[in-house]
Amino acid sequence: MTQSDEMMVFDRALVRRRRDRAAPGLAGHNFLFEHVAAMLADRLLDVTRRFPAALDLGCHDGAVARALAGSDRVDTLVQADLSPALARSAAANGRPTLACDEELLPFGAATLDLVLSNLSLHWVNDLPGALLQIRQALRPDGLFLAAMLGAGTLAELRTALVEAETELIGGASPRLSPFADLRDAAGLLQRAGFALPVADAETVTVSYENAFRLIADLRGMGETNAGLNRNPAPPPRAFWPTVAARYAERFAEPDGRIPASFEVLFLVGWAPHHSQQKPRPRGSATRSLADALGTVERPVRQ
Predict the structure, then answer these.
(1) Which of 214, 198, 169 is nearest to 31 (CA)?
(2) Is the pLDDT of residue 94 over 60?
(3) Is 175 helix (H, G, I), strand (E, B) or coil?
(4) pLDDT over threshold 70, residue 289
(5) In this structure, are residues 99 and 106 in contact, taking their beta carbons and an 8 Å threshold?
(6) Dihedral through CA 185, CA 191, CA 197, CA 200, nearest 10?
């Protein structure tokens, strides 16, 4: 499988190494994974059916499994992560677990009833290809339910980084990884062939004592910049103190703490099946929109 240069945005080997490094201490930094896993579990509860075979793609240390504990929605949950170290950590819960790449899924066609993914797909280079593989791995009427970070993530930190680097160096370089926006994510679901696609976003705001604590959490989660266009040169010694100062000046709350925003995109799609609802043909309506809205229909003036 080959990828065009346009699709190569992230250093996947670096993503894996950073996850491996974060694995031993992840329990002290995994609050966001836990929180979003609970949000995914709540959404799954809205679906009134059971899923015999499910995959947790990008399982980290098993947050989704913990969120689903006691639920009767899933019979067998297979866990998978790009990081072998995280996969070993997740396997401690006794569920079948493997290390695999989201871009090269080792699952046959129509073998899964449900694919969940918790804050992992934003590191994928070929996201359209990954979504297509997920759809193909689902049985007809199988469900895909995922959360990934969106374009509004860490907007405050991004601003502080640009201001600090401009002040000290006279220009700015990519210090944070790029994220997809909501409209792009919705379009990718359709492009991958999912039926009844839905994409929406929620913002999770976390309060920190200072910017250094935020950076420590990002490193502890294995979520620091892995873009291929990142600046490999070490910044000046004054860089991070200046970032912290600009962050506090621009965004500090009255109590002195700083907010960090994480925009979470939720993606939902179904593998096509003949029983699913389909839009009615154009021109088949028996009532006008004006009747439905209780208003008067007027012709458009030319």
Answers:
(1) 214
(2) yes
(3) coil
(4) no
(5) no
(6) 10
CA distance 151 to 162: 16
Q: If DSSP codes are grouped into helix, strand and coil, which group holds residue 4?
A: coil
Show Cβ contacts of residue 211 under 8 Å, excluding neighbours closer than 6 positions.
Answer: 157, 160, 240, 243, 244, 247, 248, 258
pLDDT at 298 over 80: no
pLDDT above 60: residue 214: yes
What pLDDT score does 4 carry? 45
Q: Is the pLDDT of residue 278 over 90?
A: no
Amino acid at 201: A
| Residue 233: predicted pLDDT | 83
Contacts of 173 (CB under 8 A, 6+ apart): 165, 230, 231
Distances (CA, A) of 280 to 86, 276, 284, 287: 46, 12, 7, 13
DSSP state for residue 62 in the 8-state scheme: T
Strands 97-99 and 195-208: unpaired
For 287, counting Cβ atoms within 10 Å of its Cβ (0-12 exposed, 13-18 middle, 19+ buried), the class is exposed
Given a contact cutoff of 8 angstroms between Cβ atoms, the answer to whether 178 and 155 are in contact is no
**Nearest of 2, 25, 19, 220 to residue 100 by alpha carbon:** 19
- List the structure tokens of 53: 């075979």
- Residue 224's nearest CA partner among 259, 177, 181, 264 is 177
- Predicted confidence at residue 254, as pLDDT, reads 96
Predicted TM-score of the model (pTM)? 0.88
- CB environment 99-135: b (16+ within 10 A), e (fewer): bbebbebebeeeebbbbbbbbbbbbbbbbebbbbbbb
Short-list 85, 90, 86, CA closest to 77: 90
| Sequence letter at residue 70 | G
